[in-house]
Specification:
By secondary structure, the chain is mainly β. Helix content is 13%, strand content 50%. Strands 2, 3, 6, 7, 12, 13, 15, 16, 17, 18, 19, 20 and 21 form a 13-stranded antiparallel sheet that branches. A four-stranded antiparallel sheet has the order 4-5-8-11, with no helix packed on it. A hairpin with a 2-residue loop joins β4 and β5.
């Protein structure tokens, strides 16, 4: 892994339509029209965004075993600011300048109010000093998402082709073409080439 420095831009845009930020065979992330967006820059190139709008996260995190289906899907409304790192080329075509009215609708008094909220989330994700220890996956069309959770931490979703990693407070789910691993508070389930194994803690 390489250490790369990212920084927030000082421009605020809004989405001009409903955007699909990421779609895989296991799920989809969408965000609605008029969602706010602040670019995340690396060497003056946009590598991601801090978004705030109304959207949804749907993931198939069910493991089919010989004993039946284990787990439950992720069906989550997104109403808090979140981070996306990855390929931004298509997204940039669907962004316009945001007005004070759009910021007010999302609960902010002004631009600086949203910038401060985005900075807090950004620093929480990337850590003190604005360094991020994962190589940016935008070059190979992968994505990293970070969502605030109810315990004050971040749930992470990493997607790269058919590979997917989802880490929440109570679940870790890892999937690729022929293997699935799910770890919950009380069990670990492994599916490999059609064979499944479950271990209770």
């Amino acid at each position: 892994m390489t250490w790369q420095k990212y920084q927030l831009d000082n421009t605020i845009s809004k989405t001009s339509e409903v955007l699909t930020l990421c779609r895989t065979e296991r799920g989809i992330i969408e965000i609605n029209t008029n969602s706010l967006a602040i670019p995340i820059k690396l060497d003056n190139q946009t590598k991601g965004y801090v978004f705030h709008g109304h959207g949804k996260l749907l993931l198939d995190t069910i493991v089919e075993t010989e004993e039946g289906a284990i787990g439950k899907p992720v069906d989550r409304e997104i109403n808090e600011p979140f981070i996306m790192l990855g390929n931004t080329e298509e997204i940039q075509r669907h962004l316009n300048a945001a007005s004070t009215e759009e910021m007010t609708k999302m609960g902010y008094e002004n631009e600086q109010d949203f910038m401060t909220k985005a900075e807090d989330l950004f620093d929480q994700f990337l850590g003190q000093g604005r360094t991020h220890k994962h190589q940016c996956c935008g070059n190979n069309h992968g994505f990293i998402f970070a969502f605030s959770n109810k315990t004050g931490g971040l749930d992470l979703l990493i997607v790269n082709g058919s590979n997917l990693v989802y880490k929440a407070d109570d679940t870790v789910f890892v999937s690729n073409k022929n293997k699935v691993v799910m770890k919950t508070l009380d069990k670990v389930v492994l599916l490999h080439n059609g064979r499944s194994f479950a271990i209770r803690k």
